[in-house]
Amino acid sequence: MSVDFAPAIELRVLDPRLEDWGLPRYRTDMAAAVDLHACVEAPLSLPPATAPVLIPVGFALSIADPHVAAILLPRSGLGHGRGLVLGNLVGLIDADYQGPVMVSAWNRNPGGTDPIVVAPGDRIAQMAFVPIVRPTFRVVADFTRRTARGAGGFGSTGHGG
Predict the structure, then answer these.
(1) pLDDT tens digits, residue range 40-75?
(2) Pairing of strands 10-13, 53-62
(3) CATH topology of domain 10-131
(4) Structural domain boundaries in the chain
C-alpha cells in the first residue's frame, strides 16, 4: 500500500543549532518518523517519578491540511532502556497549530534511581505524520446496523490472546 500524496510540511527553524545537529529527517529509507533534538541551553536533569518537563525541539510546523496531523512518540530505546517517555504518552500536533514544537519529557523510573540527563542536541523523541479522517456526525435514536459485540465493554471479547 502506498500513499497517493506526500504533503509538503513547512518547517520554520527556531534554533540555529539544528543546522549542526540535523534538521528533522528520515534516517532510513523506511523510517516512519523523524527524530527530535532537545534544544536546551545546558544539560537538563530529569529526576525519576517527578512532573514532566517541556523541552523545545527548535522548530515550528505549518501542516495546514485538516487531513494530516503529527504525533510525537518516545524513542523506543530511550523509553525501554532508560525510562525517558512522554509525559502525555503521545503528543498531537493539529494541522492549524503553528507554534514551537515541544516535547513533554518524563522520567518514568521509580524514585531513588538516577536522574536522566538530557544534553543539548540529544535525540529525545520522534515525530510521525498520520492521515486524519474527519467524519460528520449524524445523531440517531438507535444505530442502523447491529454488531455481534454490540455494547459489550472491557473484557467482553474474552481474555488472553
Answers:
(1) 999 999 999 999 999 999 999 999 999 999 999 999
(2) antiparallel
(3) Deoxyuridine 5'-Triphosphate Nucleotidohydrolase; Chain A (2.70.40)
(4) 10-131
